[in-house]
Amino acid sequence: MPEDIASWPTGRLLSAAARRVEREWNAHLSAWDLNHASLPVIVLLARADHSQRELAAAAGVTEQTMSRILERMERTGYVTRVAHPDDRRRHVIALTQAGRAVLAEAADPAPAEAMTTRGLAPEQVTQLRELLALMVAARDEASTEDASPGPPGPPG
Predict the structure, then answer these.
(1) Does 154 fall in a domain?
(2) Which of 54, 80, 104, 106 has the fewest beta carbons closer than 10 A?
(3) Contact 66/55 with Cβ under 8 angstroms?
(4) What is the distance of C-alpha 107 from the center of its chain?
(5) How crowded is residue 99: how many other Cβ atoms within 10 Å of its Cβ?
(6) How many domains does the chain have?
(7) Within 10 Å of residue 40's Cβ, how many Cβ atoms?
């Protein structure tokens, strides 16, 4: 007898859905030798050049992880790393013309939205987006509260 997915804990459901979307999105992006971690880097670099540290902070990953992402993107010709003119210990990461071209093709949000919301009615998509936004905001608020000094207050 198949397992009743609806009986899974909420966290397991959310995790399983997120993994499915990530696998499908990575398969889609592989046409450009990108993945879910490298596409946001291209988007950030399209706005301005950044240091590796700045990119890692913006993407919410460690500098080591960002280094691996950038190594791959450099091999594919999407980014360049050049020494900072004032600080030889730093590198400036810039998007190449190839990176700009791939951004125009790969960053179309329509395929990601279709993969993510497959099987949902438009009103369910709206509700899902509202609920996820609430969850993300609550996480951000909890992070801020965790960092604040003093004893925690009553739940509210």
Answers:
(1) no
(2) 104
(3) yes
(4) 12
(5) 22
(6) 2
(7) 16
